[in-house]
Amino acid sequence: MDIFEAIAHTQDRLVEEGASMGDLLGHFRNGISPVLVGELEWDRILERARLLPITMGAQPFGFELPLHTSRPEADFGVSLASGNRSGDFFEERAREDETDETARAVSRLFKEMEAHDSPLRAIVGRKMMLEYDTGSASGGKDTLPGMFLRPNERTLHGRAGLQNDVGIVVDALVSCVGWERIAAEREHAERVYLAQPEETRLDSFGVFPSRSRTIRLAVMGFNTQREVCSYLENAGWPGQISEVEAVISRFKERVNVVKTGVNIDVQADGLGPTLGLTLTVKQMYTNESRVWIDGLTDWHPMLEALRHEDFVVGEKIEALTGWASKPTTLFARTGRFVMLRGIHHIKLVISGNRLDKAKAYVYMVLSGAPVS
């Protein structure tokens, strides 16, 4: 059974367990520390999740957790794909309710993905992610979520001459949320790609239609601090590169950083001054049977390194230390499910030319497929 068949099988079982993601999240609420997600925040998340199909539990879902504020807030993220039950839900919503802007935006993207010889599908496949501002912004149930695409089918390595692919993905995201295409914006995104060193990859594209217009690009795979700083200079990032050097150096003294990624905001007039840094520590590998992945990043050293930053809330670091786990067996009405929890990445945010934010992106995913 391949991954798509496994997801479909899990979705078929989940619809017999409940109707919405709110039903599913309700089962996990007591297992998540109130230091990370508070009572009021849970109410907001569940209000949003009740509008989403429970089938989304078969693909990664989770939270963006700010580690720099004591308030237990969280944004909520889900994954979906064209051609399965979760994607079908949004396409049906778009047909039934013309006022559902999120469903219409998703449907527009899917239409491009499903077109014959689709250049978009050749790059990103059929998957996308939505991120709802349930904690950080206005968080109203009618607020359009952030929308993200990842090059799942064709890796956008630096120096590979794939700037046209970058433009295709940017145009698709801009169009799906109803923005007018701006040539300069696409050119800046292509320049960000063209500045990449050979071993890096453009890992994701995102737009936030309910915020100020920007396109978020994540570039991953930098091997050295010098590579990162040279790249930022060549790409035209307007912030102080000396602060980036200082942050990376500080963390390298505490933890074995093997790879670095950057999040850059592209705008019509150039690059935004805010920068995200993802420092990846040495990975540990296991021979144990895992349903979704065969490698696992050990985030504990990074969490320990974060404790030394004055702006980071220690109680949240403590609550996160037990988040990543081995596959856990859950027993439900229709039988056994396996759940995996993990930390996808931790982002350090430099704004105003100083490091003042840190965010953990954590996920859960369920499988109800039979294990061979």
Can you give a write-up of this model?
This protein has 372 residues and is of the alpha+beta class. The chain has one domain (3-367). It is built from twelve helices and 14 strands. It has a ten-stranded antiparallel beta barrel with strand order 1-2-3-4-6-7-8-9-13-14, surrounded by six helices. A hairpin with a 2-residue loop joins strand 8 and strand 9 (270-281). It is globular.
Keywords, separated by commas or semicolons:
two-stranded antiparallel ribbon, 10-stranded antiparallel barrel, alpha+beta, single chain, 12 helices, 372 residues, globular
Chart the SSEs and their pairings.
Elements: H1 3-14, H2 21-28, H3 39-49, E1 61-66, E2 75-81, H4 85-96, H5 101-114, H6 119-124, E3 127-132, E4 146-149, E5 156-157, H7 163-176, H8 183-194, E6 201-207, E7 215-222, H9 225-235, H10 241-252, E8 257-267, E9 270-281, E10 283-285, E11 295-297, H11 300-306, H12 314-320, E12 328-332, E13 335-351, E14 354-367
Antiparallel strand pairs: 1-2, 1-14, 2-3, 3-4, 4-6, 5-6, 6-7, 7-8, 8-9, 9-13, 10-11, 12-13, 13-14
Helix pairs in contact: 2-3, 4-5, 5-7, 7-8, 9-10
